Amino acid sequence: MSLPSSIAIQTTGLAKAYRGRGAFKGTHYWALKPLDLEVSEGGALGILGPNGAGKSTLLKLLSGLTHPTKGGYQYRGQMTSLLEVGTGFHPDLSGRENVYLSGALHGMTRTEMAQRMEAIQAFAGLHDQYMDHPIKHYSSGMKVRLGFSVAAHLHADILVVDEVLAVGDASFQAKCLQSMESQMSDHGRTVLFVSHNLYALQTLCPQTLWLERGEKVRLGPSSELVTDYLQKVQTTSSSFGEIEHSAAKGSGKLRLTDLEWKAGPPQTGVANTLRVAYEGEGDHHDVDIRLNVHGNDGRFLAPLAMHAHGFTPATLPASGELFVHFEALPFMEGWYHVDARVTERGVVAYEYKNLWGFQVASGGFLAQAPAYTAGKNGLHLNQTWSLER
Amino acid sequence: MSKPVTTVHAKDPIWRRSAAEIRRARSVAWAFARRDLQLRYAQTRMGWIWSIGQPLLAAAIVLVVFAWIVRIEAPNGLSYPLYAFAGLPAWLMAQHILLQGAPSLVHNQHIVSKIFFPRTALPLSKAGVALVDFAVASLLFWLYRGVQTGLWIEGLHWVLFFGLFGGCSALGLAYWIAALSVRYRDGLALLPFLVQGLFLLTPIAYPTERFANALGDQAWLLYLNPFVALADGMRFAWLGLGECQDIHLLAFGVGLGLFITGTWALKSVERTLIDDL
Question: With the CA atoms of A145, A147, A152 and A157 taken in that order, what torsion angle do they form, in degrees rounded to the nearest 10?
């Protein structure tokens, strides 16, 4: 096998099987089925798919964390994988020492890290005094900034990135995205990028690979694929029949079983009620359900959140229903998709990206007002216009 | 400038170890060892004094138990503390490697599952820390010996040799337990008893001759413990006692075998380690 000169990564029949556990002992299942893939040098490939599609398995294989069951891959130059921000950070070490440690884990020498220290510190926006403090005294935001900053300054020809942009505040996320873009354009780095943030994925990657149940569904231009992907999520999961609960993350003590608009197809400006059905074992204490609503291009739009909206029951029965009332539905015409995250006493019980989608029909936000039309969909906010101050 | 091409295939042989990988293992081990040393005595009142305090405490326990309670005497009219303490720094090193190195993969699984580096680096880093302890404790013993019988340096290369042998044996055992712990944590549950048993079965605080008293012709069984060679070796190095017998080769062989097979064991679970951990 030889690697053509313009190709950065090439997989040939790359596949991974895991042994079954518990009830599935003795069997095995293919987390990634034989995959042929080529990424050209300086290119960026996005990878999308529902939970359990094999995205993480692919990244684990490429980063050497686990060995293929079948097939293989080749790559040119140095590859660095970033499956998490700040891996190896120790709370008792100073920011500076953590930078050295993190660098060493990624194969960088102390001297190399020392040369980059100033840039790392500047990018993270940390003062000198903080760099010599143990990072247990940092805010979580500061830790994340330092972690990403280290990652952005590693020496690598190929960068494999998993979800790391999902951390930090919005302005830092934008900065990270920008840094990733410049890594590609200025340094000619090749990037493999997994994200549930479909907006970031479209911005960063011209091409996207769509995986589902360990198989390639399609490979093509990102904007096209993201649109089709969201459509598919919405049509297949209007009822929960298609959802694989095994692919959900979290303890599983409480699981969402259905989401449904009670008053028929939702329409902008019209009253409606969202039914949230769940099941589980035993009484649930201090439960918080968050449904994050995203627009048709993957931008995050609005949370539907129990606690944030003042509903904080001490206990909930093992299984049951909750209702979210809207006097006038704020969503503009178009498709929306929903990520769900349920916590009990702060512990994640259920987490599922792209759990459900819904379509909102056109209508005026206020009675008798004309419908607002725009290329993208979004939210109406309560507001009053007038000539008076 | 052409960049090197890396090829990975399902059918790659397990034992494919490049020079680059060994370098990487060393530098990662050094980074972890450095972290451990920096954090060693964080939040203790006495700080670095503990690196002297710990071997002194171990010596005090040996003295109280074996010299005063069990009343063991050193052969040839030697002073008992001199006799017993000769093997103590090396044993403490082996103990540290076992207790820290064997569970190091499990303890660091949050790092291990997110970033690839040669897995031997983690137990190796603990051996690095143990080696520093060994140096400090040996220095203490050297001073003590100096006060008792006059300063001396001619046997020091033997101290280094047996120290490295003991370190490698302990590391090999730690590699084995670490490799097994990926799927079976039983080894970790047994670890404290293993270490305690090894201490009692290793003639640190009592003369090796007692083996023959107890087991007669079957005494060779006890030489399956590589640390017997370590204890005898250290007394030879520091005090010029005894000589190498054929039976010692058995202990040497077991130690060396442990190191080689342990490295192989860890290496062979490395590629699917995070699937099971």
Answer: -160
Question: Hey, of B1, B6, B26, B107, which one would you mutate to test binding to chain A, going by the most A CBs within 10 A of its CB?
Answer: B6
Q: What is the CATH number of the domain that holds A163?
A: 3.40.50.300
pLDDT at A217 over 80: yes
What's the rounded Cα separation, in Å, for the pair A204 and B117? 28
Give the pLDDT confidence of B102-142 residue by residue, as tens digits: 999 999 998 998 888 889 999 999 999 999 999 999 999 99
Is A63 part of a structural domain of the chain? yes
Rounded CA-CA distance B208/A323 in Å is 78
Helices (H), B150-245: 156-181, 186-201, 209-215, 226-239
CA distance A20 to A246: 13
Residue A34 maps to a domain: yes
* Alpha-carbon distance values, A87 to A150, A259, B113, B239 (Å): 10, 36, 10, 48
Does residue A298 share a domain with residue A156? no
* Three-state secondary-structure class, residue B120: coil
Asked whether residue A135 falls in the same domain as residue A175, the answer is yes
Q: From CA B33, how far away is CA B104, in angstroms rounded? A: 12
A149 and A30, same structural domain?
yes
Please judge whether A104 and B3 are an interchain contact, meaning their C-beta atoms are less than 8 angstroms apart.
no
Nearest CA among B49, B84, B44, B34 for reference residue B64: B84
Q: What does DSSP assign to residue A283?
A: -
Residue where the block lists tokens 């019209």: A270
Task: Indicate if A194 and A278 belong to the same structural domain.
Answer: no
- Among the partner-chain residues A64, A76, A93, the one whose CB lies closest to the CB of B116 is A64
- ipTM comes to 0.86
> Does residue B15 or residue B90 have the better pLDDT?
B90
Give the number of A-B residue pairs with CB atoms closer than 8 Å.
96
Residues of B with Cβ-Cβ distance to A73 under 8 angstroms: 7-8
Q: E-assigned strands of A7-141?
A: 7-19, 28-40, 44-48, 70-76, 79-82
Contacts of A65 in chain B (CB under 8 A): 113-116, 274
Question: Is residue A218 domain-shared with residue A150, that is, in the same domain?
Answer: yes
Domain count, chain A: 2
Write out pLDDT tens, residues A50-93. Answer: 777 888 899 999 988 899 999 999 998 888 888 888 888 999 99
Chain B residues with CB under 8 Å of A71 CB are 9-10
Higher pLDDT, B4 or A241: B4
Is residue A389 domain-resident? Answer: no
- More confidently predicted of A237 and A230: A230
* Domain with A204 in it: 7-232
Same domain, A345 and A217: no
List the Cα angle B158/B159/B162 in 5-degree steps: 80
Instruction: Specify whether A52 is located in the same domain as A192.
Output: yes
- Residue keyed to tokens 């005094």: A129
Contact B122, B33 (CB under 8 A): no
| Nearest Cα to Cα of residue A200 among A297, A125, A109 | A297
Does the pLDDT of residue B96 top 90, yes or no?
yes
Question: From A59, which residue of chain B is nearest by alpha-carbon distance?
Answer: B114
DSSP string computed for A148-188: HHHHHTS--SEEEEESGGGSS-HHHHHHHHHHHHHHHHHH-
* Cβ A350 vs Cβ A248: under 8 Å: yes
pLDDT of residue A124: 87
